[in-house]
Amino acid sequence: MFVLTKLTAEDEPTRSLSGLILKNNVKAHFTAFPPTVAVFVKRECLSSIGDPSPLIRATIGILITTIASRGELQNWPDLLPQLCALLDSEDYNTCEGAFGALQKICEDSAEVLDSDVLDRPLNVMIPKFLQFFKHASPKIRSHAVACVNQFIISRTQALMLHIDSFIENLFALASDEEPDVRKNVCRALVMLLEVRMDRLLPHMHAIVQYMLQRTRDADENVALEACEFWLTLAEQPVCKELLAGHLAQLVPVLVNGMKYSEIDIILLKGDVEEDESVPDTEQDIRPRFHRSRTVSQAHAADGQNSTDEDDDIDEDALSDWNIRKCSAAALDVLANVFREDLLPHLLPLLKELLFHQDWVYKESGILVLGAIAEGCMQGMSPYLPELIPHLITCLSDKKALVRSITCWSLSRYAHWVVGQPAETQLQPLMSQLLARILDSNKRVQEAACSAFATLEEEACTELVPYLGFILDTLVFAFNKYQHKNLLILYDAIGTLADSVGHHLNKPEFIQMLMPPLIQKWNLLKDEDKDLFPLLECLSSVATALQSGFLPYCEPVYQRCVNLVQKTLNQATLHQSQPEESEAPDKDFMIVALDLLSGLAEGLGPHVEGLVAHSPVLSLMYQCMQDKMPEVRQSSFALLGDLTKACFQHVKPCISDFMPVLGVNLNPELISVCNNAIWAIGEISIQMGTEMQVYVPMVLNHLVDIINRANTPKTLLENTAITIGRLGFVCPQEVAPILQQFIRPWCTSLRNIRDNEEKDSAFRGICAMIGVNPAGVVQDFIFFCDAVASWVNPKDDLREMFYKILHGFKSQVGVENWRRFSEQFPPPLKERLSVYYGM
């Protein structure tokens, strides 16, 4: 404290460092400070807040907020009144130091400030801050706006009372010469869009014009804050109405923001074309997080649900948010709002950019084309037969940054490409992307691998004729890639296996693919996080290869069991001796459980011998009770897969497993709940009538979930299938409450493909209608619709449908049936007539 506040002859960095050392001590041990020391530190902070040095003032501010956020705001009652009083000091340094400290306190302790604990100091502070919006010093004005901004999103009452005065003051600062002030004004307006749109609406025209100007601000930080405005506005229902008249101005501003700046190009080493032999540093490799296995249904109109997670505009060396990314994201969401209406403003710009001689402009045009893909797909379709071949030629551009963005842009149009004749679009795109996977530039390799994974998801079995060619390339890349891209390559191989499935199970493909994967597997240690992507990849490969994976399964299975065992042991040790032993990284266990699931799914009954000679069931039982939801999620998926593959080993443990499944039917944890429900359905089919004792444990929960508003589609479908399966094996137990779930049951299952799960669920509903026909009467139209969703039911199931439909018709009489069926939509009428003679 002495060095920080009194030793003014010492250089400032040394004084500041002593303050930061004290701050770390406060953070760790303040409650243990003797009271006299604590009082001394607090007093010295306040008396030195006006130090002539900005660095020392900032350090003291950090020290004050650290004390305050250790729960000491309550024990330092004069802090806020004193700081507020110091704002009125004639001395600039004192005023600025006090404001700097207040800003940090508002950032760190906003919730406490807005609570009764401190007698609501904001009622005094916010009007006080508003007075300083017009202060002569730009730094003070900036502090004042930043302080108030902390309370917008939480709709703090003290601010809402002065909201009009706040907005008026913001408008007065709109053209402030200080960039920091303009930045804070933009930030305030963006947050107000979310919480007080009603107050901004009357001024919206002027605000939009202002934000257009600020998005082009010479100061990049201001421009970035302003650019956020378009992203936030696009999520508001009134966006279309408010922006329709401004698109001609806004679109060029956003497109212009999508060019690389000179600094970007330097940071991205834009002039380096070949770097494939340069090893990656640790910083190059982002931490990977494993997504636990979630069981879902295949839909009748599959292919529409491409995942968005790989669609991010991704330059990870520039992983911090910048104008380029923000402009591209804004254009993306606006394309989804305005659809084709955006194109008249965009196409002339695109035409110029895509064929520009300067690579920086051309690259930005390719980014624009990718950004609008989702929203403007329909309007762009007429131009794509010419544009896609142009982009495919850009894959050979001499600039690596052009090649890499082209990979991403093309991946955004993969759905369209797959819908065209293969020889005109898919083949040329595939062969060029595969060439880019072997590019000599690491950034291009990465972009090409990610784009190819997206193409795989869209093309699925369309890729089967080219599998040899594809595997040749991917296996060659194994020996070419540095560390980071190797992890992305695993993903591309896993996605390929998911997409082509059992078509991969050919001796020549297995011989190409498995040796390099197993070689990597043997090289990696149990604690190496590179195991995550490799295990995920192997899980997909095992599922696809089915019996083709048998020669490799034993060591893989054994290692997974060991990983689970090791993690559980480490967790037990950590619980009993938290000081001596570290908590384990449970991701290892999750990935191992998921690979065991993949093995059970792929090998089916062949996994029986492995399960019989390992402790996998007792380990899984422990995982099912883990505190971490992702561990439970993966263990329930494994339980379902083992139930299907080798129920003879699962059955003795059912009385232990079912109560655990029952307590995990909490729809707040969607994926855990989903997998538990799926596992219950699989167990029901295997248990048959012996399931009776467990029906009361789960049925009411399932009925609550299927009737719950806003339940995700996958969860609804799995719930409906499991209710159907319970009804199939125990109709007497489930049928009495048929009326409580029949309508959502029918609407949930009408869109899924014909498959075994749907088959058993519908057999269940037919059995329940047999026991309790009155339960379906009120919602019979929904049952008719669900029956009509079948393309090709098995003969005996079709017969069941026929009996129920004709039974109902004869029950109500011809005239009543005619009136009833008049409300059917024409396609439903036609299907029932053609298939069931209704």
TrEMBL record:
Q: Where in the cell is it found?
A: Cytoplasm
InterPro entries hit by this protein: ARM-like, ARM-type_fold, HEAT_GCN1, Importin-beta_N, Importin_beta
Stalled ribosome sensor GCN1-like HEAT repeats region domain sequence ranges: 107-217
Q: Which GO terms describe its cellular component?
A: cytoplasm; nucleus
Q: Which residues form the Importin N-terminal domain?
A: 8-50
Query: Which keywords are on file for this protein?
Result: Cytoplasm, Protein transport, Repeat, Transport
Question: What is a GO molecular function of this protein?
Answer: small GTPase binding
Q: Does the keyword Cytoplasm apply?
A: yes
Region entry Disordered, spans: 292-313
Which GO terms fall under biological process for this protein? Answer: protein import into nucleus; smoothened signaling pathway; somite development
The record, for SUPFAM superfamilies, names:
ARM repeat (SSF48371)
Give the protein's recorded name: Transportin 1
